[in-house]
Write a structure and sequence with these properties.
435 residues, 7-stranded mixed β-sheet, 22% helix, disordered N terminus, alpha+beta
């Protein structure tokens, strides 16, 4: 019996496949695959022998890998690596073809050359933004860039500015992780890494809140600069930023804000050379642009699927992906927390000296907040809330008006590290966070 047989619950019952299908991948080839878009089935793979990569991550022999829902990608063996044998389960339309990753090699080599020059001169390495419309493969490109830097011995910062599909913490956040010595795990992703996070509190940009996005990105930039000063290995490695798939109107405005706030000097654009050309003038002197066609390995996902994916991402934050985490429920008194909202969608609040988009308002607990995501601010005082990063995220499970208590789902521990909870407009379904 296969060591990784499992049961997938589908509408029609239990579908069990006990026989993984073997594939031989020659050097210079890749095995393209995609998973069913049913929101349930996960592809599983195992490298039997040889050198195999996925998104630039080298896979371990004999280890069973379980891919995220909706994955469409490829297992590959680059030229000169000797080939490999893999076993695949629950993959639709597996197809052997020539390795497509070589199209990224000139860019990856150029970026690592910039890092080498930065290291020699004790200056900042490439600061990269990856842009393009929804479902063009931006996240995959970010992984290739991160893994290439790691392989060449550099530390690199990854910033995810995608509010709707944030891959580091939860939807509605701007989060960063510091990658050093280890490639991106294709199963866990960035889930187990300690993040630097700021809470935007929504996954939609509007005219009223876009300047708050700019402010939080500027706060991110200031923190990353401080990190590079304290940990100089992250200076030469630079950073890479993933962005939202909205590239027009306010989406384009947000891209320009990121370029300014994070001092971007390199644009990697997928599927829209006119977009990259229009932004080149926004770069620092000597900036560079790399354009790529949209990959045939990308898949267009429906809005319903994206909503489901956001819920699952919240579940991953609390429960873990492969490494199981152990969230806890905690009951806190109304007197021990202060619920706040930030932004011009609310009343002028208590801090009139702040611009409208950063004004805060203290709000009373009520049952409408049940199943809303909240962030635990590092702020010690109310006026610090709009500028401070967050310690983590909680979900409000219950509001007991009679006992004057909140029941919270915490990722760990039993006490809140700080008093201020930033309430969001983002609610989750109970099944997304239940074990």
């Amino acid at each position: 019996r296969s060591s990784y047989s499992f049961c997938t619950l589908l509408e029609g019952g239990c579908n069990i496949n006990m026989d993984p299908k073997p594939f031989e991948i020659a050097e210079g080839q890749e095995l393209k695959f995609e998973s069913a878009q049913d929101g349930v089935t996960r592809i599983m793979a195992k490298v039997v022998s040889g050198h195999c990569e996925c998104f630039g991550t080298v896979l371990e022999e004999k280890r069973v890998y379980k891919f995220p829902l909706g994955t469409k990608g490829a297992l590959s063996c680059p030229p000169g690596k000797g080939g490999c044998v893999v076993e695949l389960m629950y993959a639709e339309k597996p197809q052997l073809r020539p390795w497509s990753g070589e199209i990224y090699n000139p860019m990856l080599q150029a970026l690592n050359a910039k890092r080498a020059s930065a290291k020699a001169s004790n200056t900042t390495g490439p600061r990269i933004i990856v842009i393009g419309e929804t479902d063009t493969g931006k996240s995959t490109l970010c992984k290739y860039i991160i893994n290439s830097a790691i392989n060449d011995g550099y530390a690199i910062t990854f910033v995810d500015g995608d509010l709707g599909q944030n891959s580091i913490t939860v939807p509605g956040s701007i989060s960063s992780v510091f990658m050093e010595g280890k490639q991106v795990d294709i199963e866990e992703g960035f889930t187990l890494l300690p993040p630097l996070a700021f809470f935007f509190g929504d996954f939609t940009l509007t005219a009223a809140n876009v300047r708050k996005y700019q402010h939080l990105m500027a706060q991110t930039g200031a923190c990353l600069k401080g990190n590079a000063e304290q940990r100089p290995q992250f200076m030469a490695g630079g950073l890479v930023v993933n962005t939202m798939g909205w590239v027009k109107e306010l989406g384009l405005t947000a891209i320009k804000m990121i370029i300014e706030a994070l001092e971007i000097d390199t644009i990697v654009c997928v599927g829209d050379p006119e977009l990259s050309a229009s932004l080149k003038s926004s770069l620092k002197s000597g900036g560079e642009v790399f354009d790529f066609q949209r990959s045939t390995a990308t898949i267009v996902r429906s809005s319903a699927y994206r909503k489901c994916s956001r819920g699952e991402r919240v579940g991953d934050y609390f429960r873990g992906v492969k490494t199981m985490l152990h969230p806890v429920k905690a009951v806190v008194s109304f007197n021990d927390v202060e619920l706040v909202q930030v932004g011009s969608g609310f009343s002028s609040g208590t801090t009139t000296e702040l611009p409208e988009f950063l004004k805060i308002k203290t709000i009373k607990p009520d049952i409408s907040q049940i199943l809303c995501i909240a962030a635990v601010s590092h702020a010690a005082f109310p006026e610090e809330v709009p500028h401070a990063n967050v310690a983590g995220f909680v979900v409000i499970l219950n509001v007991d008006m009679e006992r004057r208590t909140l029941t919270l789902l915490l990722p760990s521990g039993s006490e809140l590290p700080r008093r201020f909870l930033i309430i969001s407009r983002i609610a989750v379904a109970y099944q997304d966070i239940s074990s």
